[in-house]
Specification:
This protein is of the alpha+beta class. Helix 3 runs antiparallel to helix 4.
Length: 82
């Protein structure tokens, strides 16, 4: 089963502030959250790890945006809620 990480864990793992993290989402540099309930969201741990790996390896913004699109498309094709 796929582990879902809530916001505090994602921020701790990435080292980003909440505002910076949401800015990345709005710019297409990070995947949108998965809705867990009416008031709860999270991110698949695999996506967080893949995106951090891309940042660490030095991928440029365009490549990261393509990766985000790929991850969200994969999520949609496999039935996860975005």
């Amino acid at each position: 089963s796929q582990e879902i990480w809530r916001m505090p864990r994602v921020l701790s793992y990435t080292g980003k502030s909440r505002s910076s993290f949401y800015s990345d989402i709005s710019q297409g540099l990070w995947t949108r959250p998965v809705k867990l309930s009416q008031r709860s969201v999270g991110w698949p741990a695999r996506e967080v790890e893949v995106l951090m790996g891309a940042l660490i390896s030095g991928l440029d913004e365009d490549s990261i945006k393509q990766l985000v699109e790929h991850l969200e498309r994969f999520r949609t094709q496999n039935g996860a809620r975005v």
